[in-house]
Amino acid sequence: MAANWDALGDLANVAQLTGLDAIKLIGMIVKAATTARMHKKNCRQFALHLKLIGNLLEQLRISELKKYPETREPLEQLEDALRRSYVLISSCQDRSYLYLLAMGWNIVYQFRKAQTEIDRYLKLVPLIALVDNARVR
């Protein structure tokens, strides 16, 4: 029963982040990672990876790319993955020590899963840029 309430809380947190673009979400993740109480190393490594990605994404004019359906969908899926990642990082701040101790390996697995999902969408960025360049011509 408690797991159901945790899942509902996570859904509520994700819903609150709706409307934020990838750059803002990455900024929030980086900031939250600096105040993580548990899994600090994982949080900071994950945030460093995302900070590099965010610096590159800033150059893409994401708001411009989201005007067109063919480039909007993969960017929105990336943003969804970033929202879930923010909830994961936040869980390292909010949870009790005993909870994190019991869920330790699961959280490490969730970090790997989140990074793999984000990287999967990032592999589409060159194709998105190519589509955008073709449209501009």
Molecular structure report:
The protein has 8 helices and no strands. It is mainly alpha-helical. The N and C termini lie far apart (56 Å). The chain folds into 2 domains: 84 residues, no CATH class; 41 residues. The N terminus is likely disordered.
Quick rundown:
With 137 residues, this protein is mostly helical.
Name its key features.
single chain, 137 residues, mainly alpha, disordered N terminus, MLKL-like_MCAfunc, Adaptor_Cbl_N_dom_sf, MCAfunc domain-containing protein, membrane
Helix content: over 70%
Percent of residues in β-strands: under 5%
N-to-C terminal Cα separation, in Å? 56 Å
Provide the succession of SSEs: HHHHHHHH
In total, how many domains does the architecture comprise?
Answer: 2
Quickly give the structural class. Answer: mainly alpha
Low-confidence stretches: 1-12
User: What is the strand tally?
Assistant: 0
Largest sheet: none
Secondary structure tally, helices? 8
Q: Any idea what the radius of gyration is? A: 16 Å
Mean pLDDT equals 81
Note the overall shape: elongated
Please render the helix and strand layout as text.
Blueprint: H1 2-16, H2 22-34, H3 40-57, H4 62-65, H5 69-94, H6 97-102, H7 104-122, H8 125-136
Helix pairs in contact: 2-3, 2-5, 5-7
